[in-house]
Structure formats: structure tokens, C-alpha cells
Write the C-alpha cells for this entry.
Amino acid sequence: MSASEPQGATATRKRFRLGPGQIAGLVVVVLAIIFIVQNRTEVRVYFFTATVTAPLWLLLTIMAAVGLVVGILLRWRAGKTRRG
């Protein structure tokens, strides 16, 4: 450790590495983006009594975002129940 480095600076200089779960997550994200970009046709979606006509890429993006939010909330909830 040199005199110019503050104490503990060497402990925070860890090398960034991706774990297997993070790599798998990145692969899924890349595949989802490719899938969304390739599906750009206009589609009609029926939800109960509502009918929506929109580009498929938009609907897929919305559903991916909903899935992301649900996953984050479930992970947050699981962490909260483990702690207390």
C-alpha cells in the first residue's frame, strides 16, 4: 500500500466478475431484445372486454417490463421476510 492511498482503498479494488446467474440473465435479456425487435407487426389483443391494436414489439416490451417489476418485488419481499 502506498502512502497516497487511503486505508481500505485496496479492499475496494476488487476485480468485477460476472457469476453464472448474471451471465444467464444477460443471455436472456439479449434474446428477449432480439425477439422483440424481430416481432414488429401490428396485432390485436383481447383482454376481457377491451380490444387493443398495437405493434407487437410494444406489447412484448410492456410485458417484459411487467415481468421485471414483478421479479424485483418478489425478490424484495423474499429478502424482507428472511431478515425479519
About this structure: The chain has a mean pLDDT of 83. The CA atoms of residues 32 and 73 lie 20 Å apart. Helices lie at 20-38, 56-83.
